[in-house]
Amino acid sequence: MRGYDVLQSRLGAHVLIYGSGTMGLMMLELAKRTGAASVDMVDLNPARLETARTLGVSGSAANADELDRPQGWDLVIDATGNAAAIQDGLERVAKAGTFLQFGVADYATRVQIDPYRIYNQEITITGSMAVLHSYERAAELFAGGVLDPDVFISDRVPLDQYPAALDQFASGVGRKIVVVP
Q1: 100 close to 26: Cβ distance less than 8 angstroms
Q2: Tens digit of pLDDT for each residue in 115-129?
Q3: Does the pTM of the predicted model rise above 0.70?
C-alpha cells in the first residue's frame, strides 16, 4: 500500500514491475485498480508469471527486452531487491517517469545511475518501506473483497510441516505460505 502511495500514479500510466512474488502481485493489483493503461511484469520464475497472467497482467517475460515498449514505462517498480533487476529497471524508465525501489535489497547492494539522464529526462527515483501506515488499509481491501487473499497465499500447512515450508519458501516455490497451528 505505502509503496503505491509514494508513486502518485496517474491515470493511463504504463507500469513495469520486476518480481511477481507476493509484493509484486500486490503492486499489479493496485496498478490495475488505479487506472494503469498497462501493467507488465518481469520474473525468472515461470510459475509466478503464470499467476500474474491469471490476474490479467498485460505482458509478462523473463526479460524486459521481450516486452514491446521501446519508449519505456511511466512507472517502474522493483519488487525483488536484486541488483540486476534494479539496474535494468532504472534503464527502462520513460521520460518524466518514476522508478520505485520497493524490494528489500541487501545494504551492500550497489547499482549505477546516469545523472545526466535523470536530469535531462526528468526521472524520479524513490523508495518505500512497505510497512509505514499500511496494514489497516490493506486489511480493509482484503475484508472488502477488493483484493483476494487466495491470490497471495499459495499454501497453508500445519505447524508440524514448518521445516518443509521453510525449504519450500527458500526454493522460491509458491507465494506466501501460511503455517496454521
Answers
A1: no
A2: 999 999 999 999 987
A3: yes
- Give the chain's domain count: 2
- The long-range contacts involving 141-145, CB below 8 angstroms and separated by at least 24 positions, are 141/1
Look at residues 157, 92, 27 and name the one whose alpha carbon lies nearest to residue 167: 157
Region 98-118: what's the mean pLDDT? 94
In total, the chain counts a number of residues equal to 181
Q: What angle do CA 4, 139, 36 make, to 5 degrees?
A: 30
Q: Are 41 and 57 in contact (CB under 8 A)?
A: yes
Q: What percent of the chain has pLDDT over 70?
A: 94
Gyration radius from the chain CA atoms: 17
Domain housing 16: 2-127
Exposure pattern of 110-127 as b/e (b: 16+ CB <10 Å)? ebeeeeeeeeeeebeeee
Identify residue 72 by its one-letter amino acid code.
G
Look at residues 89, 112, 127 and tell me which one is the last residue of a structural domain. Answer: 127
